[in-house]
Design brief:
The protein is an alpha+beta fold. It is built from four helices and twelve strands; from the N terminus they run E-E-H-H-E-E-E-H-E-E-E-E-H-E-E-E. The chain has two domains: 70 residues, Aminotransferase class 4, branched-chain amino acid transferase, N-terminal domain (D-amino Acid Aminotransferase, Chain A, domain 1), CATH 3.30.470; 115 residues, D-amino Acid Aminotransferase, subunit A, domain 2 (D-amino Acid Aminotransferase, Chain A, domain 2, Alpha-Beta Barrel). The strands form three sheets. A five-stranded mixed β-sheet has the order 10-9-8-11-12.
């Protein structure tokens, strides 16, 4: 089984933000294997004809010895409520294929749509996305994500969001929250009220 994966957005046959995904793959392979073995993502991924229109999710599973591609049509998942889940021993700095702990935490979501993981008192990520929060003046993302996502990196680099330490106890200082990841992008209209976080 491949140890890592990338979720890559494809729109009408065109790979979105390949440089950010490439950097994460290169950094992962360098960290674990002191190696860089991939061609560029543009060379590696050939979009099948049946996935050349509309919004498509490409899952690239990989490690030092192999890589696998899977494609599927994508529909954005609706998330209207989150459950705060506290876990200080979670470590997801790299995009591991093994998500056992995250899946175990998800079992605690009760009647909420997803979870918002708190580590050492600080907000991190949901089970599948980074977050940005609005304080009635500006959008910020916590400086303690479990995974430094590609959409998060791009928005920070473009100066569209700021980064700050955000403790769970300070959630009341914000008005709304948005989930961001490679597939969802940064739809600022599709927000979650802070009051919908339990």
């Amino acid at each position: 089984m491949c140890r890592f994966f990338e979720t890559i957005k494809i729109v009408d046959g065109i790979i979105q933000n390949p440089l950010y995904h490439q950097k994460r793959i290169d950094d992962t392979l360098n960290h674990f294997y002191n190696a860089k073995v991939f061609n560029s993502i543009d060379e590696l991924i050939t979009v099948p004809h049946e996935f050349s229109n509309g919004l498509v999710k490409c899952r690239l599973s990989y490690d030092i010895s192999e890589n696998k591609l899977a494609f599927e049509k994508y529909e954005t998942r609706k998330v209207n409520s989150l459950k705060l889940i506290f876990c200080d021993n979670i470590d997801y700095k790299f995009k591991y294929s093994d998500r056992t702990l995250i899946n175990e935490l998800l079992l605690q979501k009760e009647d909420c749509d997803d979870i918002l993981i708190v580590k050492n008192g600080k907000l991190t990520d949901t089970s599948f996305s980074n977050i940005i929060l609005f304080d009635r003046k500006k959008w910020i993302t916590p400086d303690s994500p479990l995974l430094n996502g590609t959409c998060r990196q791009r928005m920070l680099k473009e100066g569209r969001i700021g980064e700050a330490q955000v403790f769970a106890r300070n959630l009341k200082d914000f008005q709304k929250l948005i989930l961001i990841n490679a597939m969802r992008g940064e739809d600022l209209e599709n927000h979650i009220s802070i009051n919908s976080i339990k």
